[in-house]
Design a protein that fits this description.
mainly alpha
Length: about 100
């Protein structure tokens, strides 16, 4: 037996292969900035990825990028993690708290 996403063992068990996950977080992307939503220009690569994957088209974001990214990665409100509206840039002595589990973990 072979599953579509796995390999068969000699005893008939199927070993599944974890899916590959690619997530794009694009700052300042407007609704009409991709051709699948009616942009006046073509975005065939993004359109292809969206067609074969999952599009998140109804979601809450913060007014700047760092809290939005923190919330997405940790599954918590940014304010509860100390990310209340400040952009984290190189050289700043703070970050997403290291004790929070993220999607990457």
């Amino acid at each position: 037996r072979v599953s579509p996403n796995g390999r068969s063992h000699s005893d008939g068990r199927v070993a599944t292969i974890p899916p590959h996950v690619i997530m794009f977080v694009i700052d300042d992307l407007g609704w009409n900035d991709v051709s699948y939503n009616g942009a006046e220009f073509s975005t065939p690569n993004i359109d292809g990825l969206a067609k074969s994957g999952i599009k998140l088209n109804q979601y809450y974001v913060n007014r700047v990028c760092s809290p939005t990214r923190s919330s997405l990665m940790a599954g918590r409100y940014a304010y509860n993690m100390g990310q209340d509206g400040t952009v984290i840039t190189n050289g700043h002595p703070y970050s997403l708290p290291l004790n929070h589990t993220t999607l990457g973990d």
